From TrEMBL:
This is Uncharacterized protein. Coiled coil: none annotated. Belongs to the mitochondrion-specific ribosomal protein mL41 family. Residues 138-165 are annotated as: Disordered. Pfam families: MRP-L27. It comes from Aspergillus pseudoviridinutans. It is found in: Mitochondrion.
Length: 165
């Protein structure tokens, strides 16, 4: 009996990330409606669909770290309230992320590396690397079936040769 181990793409369907959990940390990825239009033409907001961040516990006790503190300048009250808000951070000093799946194309005598789609061969390679035990078991079963086929082909040939003598 072959073992079954789910691969990463299959595990991705389990609702574990912040964007996939219903009513969890972050709702939505800026697509879809936030409500519906009533019969009279007014728009009714469905607050369960509104994108919100869940505020962490003990946010009031959170110590503010600010670059202005390092220079020992006085912080204004507005600076403190701004620092306590949850804001996204995106760095400007990041090199472009290189894709794992690329191919080389020759343009104007130069070789250019271009990203390509995740193909079926890539999926099978990834599955085989993640499920090594199952792959080894499958190869063993294939070798046994090939050996039994070879033995069954040799038996009629041997019995045929014996009947000729």
């Amino acid at each position: 009996m072959a073992m079954f181990k789910p691969s990463q793409p299959m595990m991705a369907r389990l609702r574990l990330t912040t964007k996939q959990v219903n009513g969890g940390y972050y709702k939505g990825n800026r697509t879809g409606s936030m409500g519906y239009f009533a019969k009279n033409g007014s728009y009714v907001i469905n607050w369960k669909k509104v994108r919100t961040y869940v505020v962490p516990e003990n946010l009031a006790d959170f110590k503010v770290r600010c670059s202005r503190l390092a220079t020992k300048t006085r912080l204004l009250a507005s600076d403190l309230t701004f620092a306590n808000q949850l804001t996204p951070f995106v760095t400007k000093r990041m090199a472009p992320t290189k894709g794992k799946y690329t191919r080389e194309i020759e343009k104007n005598g130069r070789t250019v590396i271009v990203e390509r789609a995740f193909g079926a061969k890539d999926y099978l390679d990834m599955w085989a690397s993640d499920n090594g035990q199952e792959v080894l078991e499958q190869e063993r079963l294939e070798q046994e079936s090939a050996a039994s086929e070879a033995a069954s082909l040799q038996e009629p040939a041997a019995s045929e040769a014996a009947s000729r003598q």
